[in-house]
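tool=predict chain=A
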Amino acid sequence: MTDDVDTQVSDRLVGRVLDGRYRVGARVAKGGMATVYKALDMRLDRVVALKVMHDGLGDDAQFARRFVAEARAAARLSHPNVVAVFDQGDDDGTLFLAMEYVPGRTLRDVIREQAPLSPARALDLLAPILSALSAAHDAGIVHRDIKPENVLISDNGAVKVADFGLARAVSATGNTATQGLLMGTVSYLAPELVTDGSADARSDVYSSGIVLYEMLTGNKPHSGDTPIQVAYAHVHADVPPPSSEQPGIPPYVDALVQRATARDRDLRPADARVLSRQVRRVRSALEEGLPDDPELTGDLTIPIQQIRQDSGYDDGYTRGAPDDDSHVLRHDTIVVPVEKGRPTGAPRVQVPPRRRGRGLLALILILAAAIGVGTAAWYYGIHRYTETPSLVKLDPAVATAKAGEHGLRTSLANQDFSEDVPKGQVMATDPAAGERIRKNGEISLTVSKGPERYRVPQLAGLEFDEAKRALAPIKLITGQVNEQYSETVSSGRVIAISPKFDTVVKPGTAVNFAVSKGRMPIAVPDTTGKSYRDAGKELRKLGLVVGRTDQYDEKVAEGKVISQTPNSGTLFAKDKVQLVVSKGPPLVEIPNVKGKRLADAQRILTGAGFTVKTEKAPYGLGLNIVAAQNPGARKKVKPGSQVVITVL
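tool=predict ok
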């Protein structure tokens, strides 16, 4: 306990918040390329499992790109037996996946504590694994790293497969992470992954067969001192029958394991769905308590000739028409050469002459054998089987009742979305309608969840990258992105989306984004010399705020802009531009000409720059003396103003 606490305390990630969202908690597990932590998604207030790639992987640009692509592909998988991927991110070079948190243990723990498992228990654990792989293979996704460590078993017994696409992301790089992956999973690698690195659905089938072998026996089929030796064994040695380690395992279980782990992938089931059907047939035979089922074993067994032909094996036996020196005795698919009436290498014996009685006896034996073979074929091939009824678009209870009328049972295998079948009705069966099924067999029902629909989340105001990541878990895609200026939304954040928030849409719907480029810059025009009215109108139209101060100016006409601050560059809406507006030339003081003679008054006023208007007093005496002036003496007026003088 003390060591564990010390480890948690010394772990630099514990307590850290990644991507501003995930608070890292206790370490759950550590592998060759990643460490898993329990974490809190602070935005959605839920517990998640955070798989953090080891230091150095984030520095590889190729890996980072493949990691993001594979994580997005895995996030599109929606299946009850698949560990859901919620998010992926890069926090300053720290790559991580946010996944569904599954409290419980791994299949490795079960094998370590309970193996060897009974065939029935092993197949019951394998069935949900194959169900998850079937969904992945249908979506074109190959897991590439099926092993007990990647199979989680929750506290309530649910089986879930993790790490879809991660092996593909790692194998794209040339760094030591790839070597670590090979070291950790070599016991489950399909031969083709060892020889040429190629993988398809049949590679997952092979790994699943190895996992089944290990559950049945408690051991891996191939061992060696080094990973290379184990890899070599996958390529050059067949997986032995599990009954070689655990006697009592039925032959059809042996055949199932060996078919799934055929070294030639063309001889394996085409994908997990095909293997899943074979597993159900074997499970049904186990339920019947059959120690052997020749037909089922024969269906699953790889023909010996096929193995020899596909592997280029040449046993030197004669397979064509016999010549003069030899002829061939055939038994089933095994060809035995015979030379001059005896098998090659056998001791010579005296062949007694043929007798008619013996010929008759041989004929009787052949007829009896034919009848026995025919009876067995009828029983194993026809009598025990019936035809699967059509149960699609029925309520599960009604489907169960209808299956019961045919002596068959049903089980709810899965739920899935359907555009055609209403919610709660059967959308598919395995076996399908019309296919052969053992009497008293079980039909797996897939029930419709109705059309797959999602509500568009609230994305306005989020960073654009964060908004795009929010689309992946609900299977929506990024549509058109229109960048535009915004006075209220900061640069890089979402202004608006279409379809709008809370709209119900189909998977694959494109969400269009309006993304802010920040506030729109405004080029400031220079309005110096323009009238204040025109200058103010021009600036306000651009969204700027106009300030004004007035001052006298001998050179700039009244009402015109003397100066502007700023008068160039760029501003943003509601920024202020200050204008200085001319009041015209400075005011001048009117001299006092009252009491002066008319000629002197006119001379003084015109000399000061004023214009003079003379008026006679109504009671004029003809003295030509200034009795009054308007404006009065020492008043300040504009240069050139008119002064009216009244003379007596």
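The first strand starts at residue 17 and ends at 18. The mean pLDDT is 82.
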